[in-house]
Structures are given as C-alpha cells and as structure tokens.
C-alpha cells in the first residue's frame, strides 16, 4: 500500500490540508486504512490515482443518483461555463430550478438557493426563530444537519437536561438552545416540549435518518411530529438534504404523505455541484430578506453552473421516473448482500428506504441512535476493506448509507454480491 500513488498523495495532502482531507469522514479513519485519491468517475464507477476501478456506492455521498458524469449534465455545465460562471445577479436558471422544485415538492411555496446543505439548515433554523420569536430547537440524537453550531450538540446526562457542545468551539450559550430527543420516540419529544412550553421554535428531523446508518421512521412518528408542531405553534423542518429526490421524486415527505413547514435540500438538487436550498410555507419564507427582517445572503447563491447541473438532474428524474426501477434493484441487492454476509456467519441487521441501504453489524433491531451504535464497527471495517480489495467502494463508515444509482447494472449488482460473499474470507 505504501508504494501507491494514493499513499503518496495522502502524505503530500497532509502537509497542506488538516488530516489531508477537506471533510473528515474522507480520511477513512474509522475503517482502518488510508483514503483513495480519485481521478475520474463515470456512471456507477470511479477510478483511483493508481488506475484501479471500483463500483461506487457512495456517489459523492448521495448526489449521483444518475451516476457520475452523466452526459447531459456534463454538456449543460460546459455550455453554461462558456457563457459565464457567476454574475452575482439574477438569472433565469434560478427561476427554472425554483419552479421545478415547487412542482415536485408541493409543501414548498417559496424556495431560496444556497451553496451547501449546512447553509440550508442554519438558514432554516434562523428563519424559524425569526418567525416564531422563540429560541430553542429540538433535534434528534444521531441525525446530522451539517456543521452549524446549533447542531453540534449532544444530549446532556439526563434526557431532560440541557444540551452540551459536541465540539470545542461551540459555546454553552448556543448549546442551551438545542434539545436532543430520540428518533422514533414521540414521548421523548413530548417531554421536551412539555418542559419548554412556548419556547420551541422548530423541530428539525431527517424524515429518513441517513447519518447514523439508515434508520427509517416508524409508522406514526412523522405524523406525530406534525401534530405536536401544529398544537404548539412549532415550525416543522424536514431536513431532506439526503432524502430529497433520493427516496422518491417528491422526497420523503411525498413518500410518507406528511407536509413539513420548511424543507432543506442539498446533494441531488446540485447534480454534483455545490447547491443547497431551503423553502416552504409562503408566510414563513416571506420573513426572509429582502421581503422581511430575517437576514440571509450568499455571493455564489444560485450560481449558474450549479443551477444547470441541478436543473438537468431533476429534469431527468422527473422525465424518466427511475424510482420504481431503483426500488427493485436496491431491494434485490439488499437481500442478496444480506444472504452473503449471513452465509459467512456474520450477524447483521439491514435497513433500507428506496435506494438508501444500510447493513448494521448487530443482531439488534435498529430504530434509533442507541440501537444503531450497537453495531460492531470493527466488523464493518473488515467488510469495507474486503469489499474495497475486490473493487467495491462503500462508505468508509458503518454509520453511512449505501446509495444505488440508475447506472448500476444487474452485472454490477451481481459482482457486488459476489464480493460480499468473499469479503470476510
Ligand atoms: C449531507 C447532509 C447535510 C449537510 O450538507 P453539506 O452539503 O455537507 O453541508 C445536512 N443534512 C443532511 C440530512 C445531510 O445528509
């Protein structure tokens, strides 16, 4: 491994970039090896600096639902690049993407573009606070909403105590306004609402949790959140940065039939370029500057290259409706990988919603953070390294999803299952 180009690049990267990476999970630390440096992606495949190819189930952490370098997306970006890459002035492309988002996500009456999922969630929280005049926010343990200060908070020692910063640099003042409930546990939400009546601005939730592995919402959970928010005047925010246009054309809210007040988007909406968005009820969104007093802005927001990449991707999804085929492929893949791992004598629990899959190395049912972390990360590391060796690139962490794209062929899936049979040898 020490004579590879990836290894040389990793050594070089660490001299200029903290840990050699621009986002920590890329460093592969939790799977016990060094990262690969990638030079190229096409369809369901990526190539590393040493020329090895891999069937890719990371898909840039979700955006590449139609595969890497889709010819139509590449063409649209090239065409726009020749016209100009940024103007800091309105373009028709922004209207087109906003109109398409409204068409596909009916709860969104007005939408604003930003440049990342993190930007979308911090803006949505500020807006919810401005709208309600309240300070506190409820989130769920194990849900990830980007790296905004308000989200880097873990539960205190008792379920009803105040939150504590989970990262140095987040102030206790910020921490006291974020309360942690348990996923799929409405009584834990009721308890927080009851002890902070009239002070909760927003409940933010991943409608399918995808950042503690994949944890689907149990029947009634999202509906229960909707009812609590209606009763208490709380803004319900669905963080669909991962699930948006992934679990269905109308996002998780379409799949489960629940209308949030605000929605945050990212990943797929940018088609592989940096885009985030937040939108929702008109009366809330009208609080935003320049219409209202809640400030939010961005030099590169609505960037034309990013807009065409997202627009082209969403149009392909709308026109081709690949979701039934993705469901079928993903369900077969999950079933066969499950059987392969079981036949190696390894205990595992599977979760899946559409083309978001997860294999937890635990025999417990996974419904929340506490049960997710019963998974054996050493076994995952072994699985990950075994798969990589055979040419299958999975997320370098137990607590991430595996994403299937429209470009994964039956043959790719068969090769993946064959690899899973061998991964533990
Ligand atoms: C990825 C993700 C984010 C953060 O998006 P970035 O573009 O990485 O800032 C926020 N929420 C969820 C649910 C995500 O999956």
Which secondary structure elements does this structure contain, and how are they paired or packed?
Elements: H1 5-16, E1 38-42, E2 45-48, E3 53-56, H2 71-83, H3 92-104, E4 110-114, H4 117-132, E5 136-140, E6 153-154, E7 164-165, H5 172-175, E8 178-181, H6 186-195, E9 200-205, H7 221-232, E10 235-239, H8 251-256, E11 262-265, E12 276-280, H9 282-285, H10 304-320, H11 323-343, E13 349-353, E14 356-360, H12 369-372, H13 377-390, E15 392-393, E16 402-403, H14 410-422
Parallel strand pairs: 3-15, 5-8, 5-9, 9-10, 10-11
Antiparallel strand pairs: 1-2, 2-3, 4-12, 6-7, 11-12, 13-14, 14-16
The structure holds pyridoxal-5'-phosphate (PLP).
Residues 116-118, 121, 144-146, 206, 210-211, 239, 241-242, 266, 276 line the site of pyridoxal-5'-phosphate.
